[in-house]
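We store amino acids, tokens; thus:
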Amino acid sequence: MVTLHSYVLRELLKTFGLTLAALTALFTMGGGLYNVIRFEGVSAGDVFGFIPLLIPIVVTLTMPMAALFAATMVYGRLAADNELLACRAAGINVHRLLSSLVLLSVFVAAFTVLVGSFVIPGFIQRIDDFARSNVRDLVAQQLQHKGFIHRGRTGEDRYTITAEKVQGVSPAALREKGFEIAGGLHYLLITSPTFLHVGQNGELARFTAAQHVLCVFDTRVTPLEVTFHVQDGQDFEVGRGALRIEQQQIGPVQVPLPAPFRLTFTDLRDLWRWRRAPWEVPRLRDEMQRFLADVMRAQFAAHCVDRLQGGGTLRLADEYGQEYAVTARGAQAGALGAVLTQGRVEVRTPERVLKSVYEAERIELNTVPLPAKTLVEIRLVKTGGQDVLEYDVRAGVKTSPRRKQSLSLDQVLVPQDVLDELRLYTAETVIDPAATLPLDESLGDRRLGLQKSAQQLVRKIVGTINFRLGYASSVLVTLLMGAALGIVFRGSRALAAFALALIPFFSVLILMVLGRQLTEDVHTTQIGPLVAWGGLVLVLLADAVILRLGVRR
């Protein structure tokens, strides 16, 4: 039996390997690279850098179909050559010969799950890194072949860049002009470029033309930064006039180039984690951070208004222990914090010695969110001809004030009372509908929007997990169907048997897609997984019937 199983398995692997190689070459060269050349604008030489990144993705997608073809052809040939008949005559149960097929199906299913869930997401990130490191070449190729680059859609700001000629710059020429030469810095010289900016309403907003522009792409930082060194240019901005540019540096300008976020290409471990903590999903995490920052501003503004009512004093401190005593005639909430009228700020040293006094008609207390903490900026602004007054107090003597247009005092800490209140406002409590949080109407509506987005993301994550696992599991039942049909048709109509085996294969895929869509719908989310996995159960039952009635032991 070991020899017989080894023979069948060897035939399966041989047919499976040849079919997989053919399908991989077809889809890689005919589909993936064509789209890369057409839509990304890279040259044929650059395309070969994508091949090692595309092959694992294509192999994972085509492997189930290659295994199905191998199962149908091999067992159909065994039946046509009467090898199965010989096994029956020798007293061997023909159904036991399907053990080799089961091993192949388990291997394909495990490979699809492991590679599709843990390896392919890394390759997607590497493709993004490849595009990031070659952004200069992508820009140059598009300008050379198309003559222009256009970004933006109808209803948005649209930008069009044209160029007469683009070329690289030698390191020697860059050193002669004093430019830095380092890894991650890429230079591109554009001759006779034009820049056209059309607003959302379709009207011309800005037009710029120059003789030469040296573009510097700095891929060492995230997001990518581009600096433009313009020579002999003219800039026309509608409503503001024209400007002559002899030689000027513009930028650096940040150009975010993130890979499109798709749950389909996300690591399975991240999907399981996000299912329980949807606020960690990148698209929702950024919205949550902005929401919590606005909650911080609202709470801080309410704290300031409460302390300043009735001539009270707001006391703040900075990172160095200095104290800021703020008083004002009026206070109200602003876009970034609190806005005070006819305000006064007294600054004292850590030893509580009066150091400086500031007075202004308008004082803005703006919160500044940072990665590790949130600070407060005290910004004094000139209003209605009244300058900002700065008094330098020494030894208790108040000198004549210095007049300024504006003045900022930063590195001020948020009061501890506000931080204590904000401990209730976490991403988990914001998403939880059962948690009660004191919010105004605007923030309350935004919280409802975040909760709906989180619930929708959870449904999409569940649908993606079921689809991914179901697609891999489909191999276990569809290969049995293919082998059974191959035996029934006895190899005389092998292609017909394979075509017939594709019906349950694609039917299962259609039901999985339908199940994912139903899972994502709030009204049918409970029956979505049943539809996705129900197709596998039906095919398994059909396998049992065909093997029982159509394939004699």
Notes: The CA atoms of residues 172 and 181 lie 10 Å apart. Residues 36-42 have pLDDT under 50 and may be disordered.
